[in-house]
């Protein structure tokens, strides 16, 4: 075939064939923002006229209106397929707002109310020698108790949870592994009050020990273990099998492969999981009420005598109901949030420091 065979073919001329047009009408980019603003205005105004003064009710009206208006506009300007797509996108954004708005509101309220009293004096003094209705006092005794109780619980739960996860991922086979997995799943859903009752029956009533921070730590450790196991198990499963096979091919024993290859590779995720478990138990109140009892004085010994903790301090102060105690409760809540945030930042720093070289690239 000659090189000019294609060019020698007669060219077909005539009007272009009628086909689907590529140019479609589109709504402007600023349409979603305008729809949201109009829906919020209508929701607030319509809710006020209907006597619904609650912001939650007005927000629900605005969300429903935004979805309806988005569907109507897109159907008129574009087509039904794009309208369904826009509605699905609007529903996702509404669900996102429904999750974020309460969180932001809670954080803002806690910071604005707690920052009024949170200062050096509040962090360095206890409630010893003070009445509950007078202003003053601090949170030092509760902060010290929380640090000791959470620290002891972490020392008990983190190694057990880590070793359990290593067994399930690296060694566990057969009925024993299935039984361990089943009991970990059961422990994940245990209410905190049940863990407190178990320690109360075993440690206090059975063995005769009195209230102490250590008793509360044991209940917190029970709540912490399944979280550590599950998070560590998932992180270990993410380690590529090629790393294990390469280490084993060099003649390295399996225990050393786990210790030197698998655990360092997943250390960042493990540390994050432990911190999530710490955040899980740091705000628990029921086990502390049963086992620690609370103490307005400073008790640095977690193995003897009643202690205070931040969640129990917040509960006791808010329960009193007067202005001074409610202010102390908000400041204690802000202290607890700041404590958990600092622990998470510390865990991220340790994970980045201990991560293998080049893992973050």
Automatic annotation (TrEMBL):
<dbReference type="InterPro" id="IPR035906">
    <property type="entry name" value="MetI-like_sf"/>
</dbReference>
<feature type="transmembrane region" description="Helical">
    <location>
        <begin position="33"/>
        <end position="52"/>
    </location>
</feature>
<dbReference type="InterPro" id="IPR051408">
    <property type="entry name" value="Phosphate_transprt_permease"/>
</dbReference>
<feature type="region of interest" description="Disordered">
    <location>
        <begin position="1"/>
        <end position="23"/>
    </location>
</feature>
<keyword id="KW-0472">Membrane</keyword>
<keyword id="KW-0812">Transmembrane</keyword>
<feature type="transmembrane region" description="Helical">
    <location>
        <begin position="58"/>
        <end position="77"/>
    </location>
</feature>
<keyword id="KW-1133">Transmembrane helix</keyword>
<dbReference type="Pfam" id="PF00528">
    <property type="entry name" value="BPD_transp_1"/>
</dbReference>
<feature type="transmembrane region" description="Helical">
    <location>
        <begin position="209"/>
        <end position="229"/>
    </location>
</feature>
<feature type="transmembrane region" description="Helical">
    <location>
        <begin position="329"/>
        <end position="347"/>
    </location>
</feature>
<feature type="transmembrane region" description="Helical">
    <location>
        <begin position="89"/>
        <end position="108"/>
    </location>
</feature>
<feature type="domain" description="ABC transmembrane type-1">
    <location>
        <begin position="143"/>
        <end position="347"/>
    </location>
</feature>
<protein>
    <recommendedName>
        <fullName>Phosphate transport system permease protein PstA</fullName>
    </recommendedName>
</protein>
<dbReference type="InterPro" id="IPR000515">
    <property type="entry name" value="MetI-like"/>
</dbReference>
<feature type="transmembrane region" description="Helical">
    <location>
        <begin position="261"/>
        <end position="282"/>
    </location>
</feature>
<dbReference type="InterPro" id="IPR005672">
    <property type="entry name" value="Phosphate_PstA"/>
</dbReference>
<feature type="transmembrane region" description="Helical">
    <location>
        <begin position="181"/>
        <end position="203"/>
    </location>
</feature>
<comment type="function">
    <text>Part of the binding-protein-dependent transport system for phosphate; probably responsible for the translocation of the substrate across the membrane.</text>
</comment>
<keyword id="KW-0813">Transport</keyword>
<comment type="similarity">
    <text>Belongs to the binding-protein-dependent transport system permease family. CysTW subfamily.</text>
</comment>
<keyword id="KW-0592">Phosphate transport</keyword>
<keyword id="KW-1003">Cell membrane</keyword>
<feature type="transmembrane region" description="Helical">
    <location>
        <begin position="150"/>
        <end position="169"/>
    </location>
</feature>
